[in-house]
Design goal:
Blueprint lengths: L8 E3 L6 E4 L7 E8 L4 E7 L5 E7 L5 E6 L9 E9 L2 E6 L2 E6 L5 E6 L18 H12 L3 E4 L6 E6 L2 E6 L10 E2 L4 E7 L2 E6 L34 E4 L6 E4 L18
Antiparallel strand pairs: 1-2, 3-4, 4-5, 5-6, 7-8, 8-9, 9-10, 11-12, 12-13, 13-14, 15-16, 16-17, 17-18
Length: 269
């Protein structure tokens, strides 16, 4: 999956003042760009003129470089799959196609990492437009922030949850130990519902991506910004998981439902 060019500068949306220019940070290509409000920064990941991967955090107010890390990932083929999630005032987690990382928000140093293979977000492709003009520019910016997974917290402040389309798990924030038995699903997650009795994962395999003869994903918008197109049978599962261990408490099995859950209630005890 090739890296796409992103906007060459970052403006202040309130005043129009240019905060920073990626060219000044020696970027040749910007693959991903995310804001991290809790850290007061904007995170850029891409490649320099020597095709070395680099991650830079800049101050969102002044545009000054807070830190820069080269060769953070094992190879240039490693693609960011989930937006950075600040777990404290000085640390954040981020995922790629190969690993989940906890990084020091002050220095960019790796605090821990865990193997987790996650499919990359599908690229949108401009149709007859240049990378910096018209529709092509909008698609390039969309690619720079697209994801195929996400992090979130629930009740336990010591855990960080990670969900892709077909896998959900949880890690101890301090040391990176995986505390869940990974929930691996047969059909993609459509909704995550936080219930008093646990975490409900609602799936719908009509959201499974269709591909063309060459294996490229056909385009439409799906869960968590991933560009997908429905192609399954429409059968849905609703599973309830223990938020501390990931143990499955129950499953409704194949429900034959389409669409999203808009209301639910328990019958009996």
């Amino acid at each position: 999956q090739a890296a796409h060019r992103a906007a060459p500068y970052r403006p202040d949306v309130a005043t129009g003042r240019v905060i920073c220019k990626t060219k000044d940070m020696e970027f040749q290509r910007v693959q991903k760009r995310f804001e991290i409000p809790r850290l007061g920064g904007i995170l850029f990941y891409g490649f320099n003129k020597s095709n070395k991967g680099q991650m830079i955090l800049v101050n969102a107010e002044t545009g000054s470089v807070l830190w820069k890390k080269e060769k953070l990932f094992e190879s240039n083929s490693e693609i960011i799959t989930a937006a950075p999630y600040a777990v404290s005032d000085d640390a954040f987690v981020i995922s790629t196609t190969k690993e989940i990382y906890k990084l020091n928000g002050k220095t960019g140093e790796v605090m821990w990492k865990q193997e987790m293979k996650t499919p990359p977000p599908a690229l949108a492709e401009a149709e007859g437009f240049g990378a910096f003009g018209g529709k092509g520019n909008a698609l390039a910016n969309s690619n720079a922030t697209s994801t195929s997974a996400e992090f979130f917290k629930y009740k336990n402040p010591n855990l960080i949850y990670f969900a892709s389309h077909t896998v959900m798990t949880a890690f101890d924030i301090a040391g990176g130990k995986e505390v869940w038995k990974r929930a691996e699903l047969e059909s993609p997650v459509a909704q995550i519902i936080f219930d008093d009795r646990g975490i409900l994962l609602c799936t719908d395999d009509s959201r499974a991506p269709k591909t063309d003869a060459e294996g490229h994903v056909k385009k439409s918008h799906g869960l968590m910004g991933k560009l997908t197109s429905g192609g399954g049978s429409g059968k849905a599962f609703i599973n309830l998981y223990d938020p501390e261990t990931g143990a499955q408490k129950w499953s409704c099995g194949e429900l034959g439902l389409a669409g999203s859950v808009v209301f639910y209630s328990y019958s009996g005890n």
